[in-house]
Every structure is written in structure tokens, then in C-alpha cells.
Amino acid sequence: MSVRVKLTLSYAGFLMLAGALLMAAVWVFLLAYVPEQAMLNNAEDKDKLGGVFPVRSALLDVFAPRAAAVLAFLLVFGLVGGWILAGRMLAPLTRITDATRMATSGSLSHRIQLPGRGDEFRELADAFDTMLERLEAHVAEQQRFAANASHELRTPLATTQALLDVARSDPHRDIDELVERLRIVNTRAIDLTEALLVLSRADKQAFTREPVDLSLLMEEAAETLLPLAEKRGVTIDTSGDIATASGSPALLLQMTTNLVHNAIVHNLPELGSVWVRTGVRSGSAVLTVENSGEKLSPLLVSTLTEPFQRGTERIHNDHAGVGLGLAIVQRIIHVHDGSLTLTPRADGGLRIAVQLPAPAPHSAK
Ligand SMILES: Nc1ncnc2c1ncn2[C@@H]1O[C@H](COP(=O)(O)OP(=O)(O)OP(=O)(O)O)[C@@H](O)[C@H]1O
Ligand SMILES: [Mg+2]
């Protein structure tokens, strides 16, 4: 049974009930004033009716059919009126249902845009519109990501193809050099694929949370990357207190490594510095990674966490990254319910602050 029919029946039912009660009240009222029988004075009538006149039953004979007629009218009125009213009340629902159907069939650009006052239907429609908007933005982002990823993955394959074509047509090819270049291109493809895998695996449900000390991760990342830093003439300065966050040690180590790696490779060509700090601020574990480097504009900095964004330095930097490092960092922080802040330093370079929630008191060691 549709809601419209149910509402109509309820309207009509209530109207009937109220009508019946009214009739009963009238009847009781009449009874209080009308005697059961009346003595007759007229001699002729006395003969016919045996001296008394049954007033009440006569009244009932008159009242009952009229009451029935009124109730019948109320029934028809209630059904018709209820049908119309219910239709008007439920009209917004039809619009919402239509929009839902369109969204189900893949059209996310449609909006309900329900006019009128801020009633419950309007709230529902507005919430639905907001959801559609988010969904549309999310789908667009995913599509952009897939397109970028495919493009990035095609690059090493196309490079390989070009290297092979050139080698085939060149009778004096240097096999060793070819192998070496193919190896570099291949490594890059592997790096990219691995980064994409990390990105897609960093899922909220996919890991168990445990207390992780960021200062230990900082030391581990700095130690691992020390050879790279030395090769580039960058000094790493680590210090800080124990900062316990709640999360996956593997993912948080990946995050720390990515940040320190960036701080080393996107630094000054020589005599660069990296400062890594840990601490606790207002109950959260905080990790900051700061590095010297060329001056960055706030506008550029705000785009760096987007996948495949590589800043400006690709031309004069031999580190050809895939541009997913910060996207991975952001994703890891997101699944840990933390926050990431990027600020350009006044003297050049970048300051990155990560804030992660501390473990709940009962799970802390
Ligand atoms: N610490 C930093 N200092 C200055 N610039 C940075 C820093 N970290 C990132 N950037 C800029 O942000 C861009 C994006 O960084 P991201 O880590 O996402 O990619 P990438 O380092 O180029 O490649 P990879 O995916 O291999 O890490 C970098 O190309 C660089 O221009
Ligand atoms: Mg990087």
C-alpha cells in the first residue's frame, strides 16, 4: 500500500471517528432533554396509541438516517480531501526519488534544489544535494587520478619502446648502455607501481592501531636515508621527545621516510639542511620536517600534495620522482585521522607539520 493511500485512509478514518463522536454527543445531549414517552391528551390519539407516545424512538427514526448521511458525506469528503492533501505533502518525495534514480543510473550532476521553506523534506533534499556534490567531486578526482596514473605508467613503457626501436635500427648499438638505460626506465616503472599500490592499500580498515613512537620512526628514517643525504651534502638534524601516536608502524614509517626523503632531495644543491622534530602538542603527537631550499610560493605549496604534482624543479634536479610521495603521506595521515600542514619557509624550503592523535588512554603502554 502506498504512503499516499495510507495517509488518505488515516485522514478519512479520523474524520469519520470525529463525526461519529459528534453524532454520539448530540444523541446523548438529546436523550438528556427528551423523555422516553409522552402522555397524550388528545382523545383520538389516545385511542390509537394506547395513551402514550414513544418520543425517543420517533426521534431516533428521524435522527439515524440524517446521521448516516452526514457520516457518508464525511467519508467521501475525507477520502477526496485526504487524497489531495497527501498528494501535495508527498510531492517533494517524488522529486527526491527521481533524483535518486538518476544518481543510481550514473548521472551525478543532477540536483534536487527543492524550493520552499526549511521543512524536513527540504532538509533531506539539501542533504542529498550535498552528498551528490561530494560524490561527483570524488568521482571526478578518481577519474583524474586514473588518467594521470595511466599517463605516468605509459611514459616508461613508451621510453622503453623508443630505446628498443632506436637500438634495433642502429647496427653499432652499445648493448651495455642499452641494458643500463632500460634498467633505469624499468626501475622507475616499478617505483611508480609500488607507490600506486601503497596509495590504494592505505585504507582505514586495513590496519590495526597500536602505539607508535614517532621519535623512533624519525631516527630510523634518518638512519636509512643518511647515505643519500651524505651523497647530496645535506645534514640531517633530528631531536625531540617521545611522541606516541596510534596507528600502523609500517604506514607511519613510510610517511616519515617519504617526508625526510623529500626534505633531502628537494633541498639546496649543496650545504642543505634538514631538521626533524617530534613532540606532543595539546594531546597529539607532532612530527615536523623542515628543510632549506629554494623559495616556494604559498600557491605552489598548496598543490604539492596532489598526486603527480612535482613542483617546479624537475628541470634542474636529477631526482626524477613520480610525484606521489606527498599524496601517499597525505593519505596515510588521513586514514590515521591526523592533519598535515605545509608552509613555505621565509628563507626558502619547506616546513611540514604532521599532527596525529595519541592512542586512547587504555591502549597506551
Ligand atoms: N621538503 C620539500 N621541500 C621542497 N619541496 C618539496 C618538498 N617536498 C616536496 N616538495 C615538492 O613537492 C613535489 C611533490 O612531492 P612528492 O614527494 O609528492 O613527489 P616527488 O618527490 O617529486 O616524487 P616521489 O613520488 O618520488 O616522492 C616535489 O616534486 C617537490 O617539488
Ligand atoms: Mg617525494
Question: Can you walk me through this structure?
Answer:
Helix 1 (3-33) runs antiparallel to helix 3 (55-104) and helix 4 (120-169) packs antiparallel against helix 5. This protein has helices spanning 3-33, 43-49, 55-104, 120-169, 175-201, 214-231, 249-265, 298-301, 325-335, and strands at 38-39, 52-53, 210-213, 234-240, 244-247, 272-281, 284-291, 339-344, 350-357. The model has no long low-confidence stretch (mean pLDDT 89). It has a 5-stranded mixed sheet, with helices on one face. Strands 1-2 form a two-stranded antiparallel ribbon. A two-stranded antiparallel ribbon has the order 3-5. It contains 9 helices and 9 strands. It starts with a helix and ends in an 8-residue tail after the last strand. It folds into 3 domains: 3-107; 142-201; 207-363, 2-Layer Sandwich (Heat Shock Protein 90), CATH 3.30.565.10. The protein has 365 residues and is of the alpha+beta class. Strand 8 (339-344) and strand 9 (350-357) form a beta hairpin. Magnesium ion is lined by residues 258, 261-262, 321, 325.
